[in-house]
Amino acid sequence: MIILGIILLIVGIVVGIPILTTIGIILLVVGAILMLLGAVGRPVGGRRFYY
Known about the structure:
DUF6131; transmembrane helix
């Protein structure tokens, strides 16, 4: 999810489409939160790891 967020963020900036940039930022933040919760050992949605 983090990688997809980075890709959408870069494509949105290069092409100039603001909705892609916004979606990229949202995916990046959500992916980082899930990664941090998984790293501390707290299962989210029944899954301990999201990779």
